[in-house]
């Protein structure tokens, strides 16, 4: 016979435990989806920055070797691609930070309500670190192109 004073709390039931574990895994899957989204932004930005820099350099070399007289249109197009790549990466980084902040808040709230076990914290994002390094590289490339200084001239 079960004593009514020792009844199992709804939060201690096996079904609640399983739901809690599934929710925890869902948070991890959502975090990984955000990482994949940032990786796609990195790929596109890297392509834009590298194509822009290459186009700029090709037109500069053609002008130096007197193959063409004016390289302004090619230079401007290359600079535009680099700027577009840097801006896209910056927007992607800001969105990723905002999304991860909201996800962490939601997870913390659910952990505080004891609906979720918060035992495994989100690891540092290597994708975010890579994106920030690429952003710095893109800004250096842009400065090099505009000011004709830096390691790429």
Automatic annotation (TrEMBL):
GO terms for cellular component: plasma membrane. It comes from Pseudoxanthomonas suwonensis. It comes from the Bacteria. Its main location: membrane. It is a multi-pass membrane protein. Residues 29-99 form the DUF202 domain. PANTHER family: DUF202 DOMAIN-CONTAINING PROTEIN, FGR18P. It is found in: Cell membrane. Keywords: Cell membrane, Membrane, Transmembrane, Transmembrane helix. This is Membrane protein. The chain crosses the membrane at residues 79-103, 124-147.
